[in-house]
């Protein structure tokens, strides 16, 4: 990873943040995933938490047992020990089933209208891209996937919904996501995924992690219901 | 397990242990006590280990009935505490017996109290922690993020009669919560996106705490500061981070903060000073001063040594 330009900044009394670049991409996503995994092992018990995101990694440590000099050194070692150039396509590939329809995706028609496409074209284009998990946050299990094809990229709703159902598959700008739990939200809803995105009682609690790849695959109404999907 | 019955939950009473750690990568915040020092003293006064779950009572109004023999201690804001209508002191442990009524009035100075019981509250943990995070619907007595309700039964062990009781030394007691010094800030994150003039404005101004302040963050109001950038790619947020949205009014992010966010940040408030901030009410004025990461490190180590070296006064019973 010697060719990569990265920088390390202080975030607070117990945290450093590593910046990998200005814009997210598949190579950076993979570097962050590998560095996260390496540091989780190498820093040991003084590590409190790691927060991988689009193009950065926040490293939180116990300042009573170490200091930022030691953590900087551990980060530099991790960056020099991980190699990603040939492996930029790694990360697990997860396929998520989606029931695309107007009953499960209330914004499908308006999104198609705004983009000058048919509903069938929107559904086809959404499935053509292999997405990266760029970040997890906002709510437990909420994974930000990118990047959505420019042809179906669409601004958030002017007025967010009070209630977006669990499993809602949605688009905002060039990002897509599956809502893990019912919540307010302003993304455009295009379908429903019957697979739980966050379950505190299973191990792992989430089907994806940062750096993984995700594909969406259309299923029928019957298949959705067979998989215990719930229509709103 | 029987334990302690909730008669009146008060305004907002939450089970809190140290918090939930190592789970930011699946989007979970830490939770945990807003005033960590008061939380730690409450546990020490009960001879508890540091990770025992306590009650965090915001503003007050809590009424409990004991079903066990044990002992309790309440720390934090200045609030009237009574056991069976007899006023008793904060920052000190007290024996309780079945049928005893424990009542906490409303805070007259400060805003949060911590009530510890010997052995700690023992509800089912959620991701290795009992801490209640309302926004995530996680943790707490019912593992669903709900605050205490009337009728709740808080599980804790019958510990019998205490052999001795403990009290915070009076020299320390007089200092608790009275410091009005500036909140110390370690500059970091996007600090270079704020000009030196903007930073000077921030550190020389008074900010007031607004009504939109909760366990997630304290929104401040004062002179607007403007970074040279509008937004950033969402990135990890550490405790105490000062984020500056487009309106220039800073927000200090606290125990229930979102794990990632896309507003520029100036740095982070020292955790020791967040304890004091968490006791302030809307309308209070605060100000900030910058310190280096080394000064922050020294302050943390010194404070920890002082905490560990403080001998509690023993009251024989």
Report on the architecture of this protein.
The complex is a heterodimer of chains A (232) and B (317). Chain A is of the alpha+beta class and 232 residues long. Chain A contains five helices and 13 strands. The longest helix of chain A has 17 residues, at 26-42. Chain A is elongated, with a radius of gyration of 19 Å. Chain A starts with 6 loop residues before the first strand and ends in a 6-residue tail after the last helix. The mean pLDDT of chain A is 92. Chain B has 317 residues and is an alpha+beta fold. Chain B folds into two domains: 3-174, no CATH class; 183-308, Cyclophilin (Beta Barrel), CATH 2.40.100.10. Chain B has helices at residues 36-45, 170-173, 196-204, 271-278, 293-309; strands spanning 3-8, 12-16, 54-58, 63-66, 70-78, 81-83, 86-88, 93-96, 101-104, 109-117, 153-155, 164-167, 183-187, 207-213, 217-221, 235-236, 241-243, 251-253, 260-261, 265-269, 285-286, 288-291, 313-316. Chain B starts with a strand and ends with a strand. The model of chain B has no long low-confidence stretch (mean pLDDT 95).
């Amino acid at each position: 990873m010697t060719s990569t330009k990265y920088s390390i900044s202080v975030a607070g009394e117990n945290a450093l943040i590593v910046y990998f670049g200005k814009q997210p991409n598949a190579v950076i996503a993979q570097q962050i995933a590998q560095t996260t995994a390496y540091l989780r092992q190498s820093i040991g018990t003084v590590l409190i938490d790691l927060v991988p995101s689009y193009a950065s990694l926040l490293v939180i440590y116990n300042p009573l047992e170490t200091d930022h000099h030691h953590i900087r050194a551990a980060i530099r070692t991790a960056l020099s020990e991980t190699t990603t150039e040939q492996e930029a396509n790694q990360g697990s590939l997860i396929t998520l089933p989606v029931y695309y329809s107007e009953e499960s995706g209330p914004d499908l028609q308006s999104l198609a209208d705004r983009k000058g496409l048919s509903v069938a074209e929107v559904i086809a284009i959404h499935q053509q891209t292999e997405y990266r998990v760029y970040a997890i946050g906002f709510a437990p299990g909420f994974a930000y996937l990118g990047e959505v094809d420019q042809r179906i990229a669409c601004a958030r709703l002017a007025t967010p919904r009070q209630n977006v159902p669990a499993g809602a598959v949605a688009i905002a700008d060039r990002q897509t996501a599956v809502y893990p739990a019912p919540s307010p939200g302003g993304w455009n809803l295009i379908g429903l995924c019957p697979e739980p995105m966050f379950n505190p009682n299973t191990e792992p609690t989430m089907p994806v992690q940062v750096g993984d790849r995700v594909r969406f695959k259309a299923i029928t109404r019957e298949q959705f219901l067979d998989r215990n999907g719930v229509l709103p | 397990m029987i334990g302690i019955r909730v008669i009146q939950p008060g305004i907002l009473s939450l089970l809190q242990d140290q918090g939930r750690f190592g789970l930011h990568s699946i989007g979970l915040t830490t939770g945990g006590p807003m005033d960590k020092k008061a939380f730690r003293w409450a546990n020490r006064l009960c001879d508890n280990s540091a990770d025992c779950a306590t009650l965090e009572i915001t503003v007050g109004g809590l009424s409990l009935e004991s079903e066990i023999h044990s002992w309790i201690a309440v720390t934090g804001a200045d609030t009237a505490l009574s056991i069976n209508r007899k006023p008793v002191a904060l920052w000190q442990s007290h024996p309780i017996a079945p049928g005893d009524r424990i009542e906490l009035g409303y805070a007259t100075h400060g805003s949060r109290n911590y009530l510890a019981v010997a052995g700690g509250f023992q509800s089912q943990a959620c991701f290795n922690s009992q801490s209640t995070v309302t926004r995530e619907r996680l943790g707490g007595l019912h593992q669903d993020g709900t605050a205490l309700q009337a009728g709740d039964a808080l599980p804790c062990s019958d510990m019998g009669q205490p052999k001795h009781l403990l009290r915070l030394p009076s020299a320390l007691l007089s200092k608790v919560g009275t410091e009005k010094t500036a909140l110390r800030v370690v500059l970091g994150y996007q600090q270079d996106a704020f000009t030196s003039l903007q930073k000077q404005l921030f550190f020389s101004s008074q900010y007031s705490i607004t009504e939109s302040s909760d366990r997630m963050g304290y929104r401040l109001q004062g002179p607007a500061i403007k970074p040279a950038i509008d937004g950033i790619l969402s990135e990890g947020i550490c405790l105490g981070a000062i984020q500056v949205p487009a309106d220039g009014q800073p927000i200090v992010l606290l125990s229930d903060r979102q794990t990632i966010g896309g507003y520029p940040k100036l740095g982070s408030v020292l955790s020791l000073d967040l304890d004091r901030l968490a006791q302030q009410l809307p309308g209070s004025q605060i100000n900030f001063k910058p310190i280096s990461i080394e000064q922050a490190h020294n302050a943390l180590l010194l404070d920890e040594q002082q905490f560990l070296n403080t001998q509690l006064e023993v009251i024989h019973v």
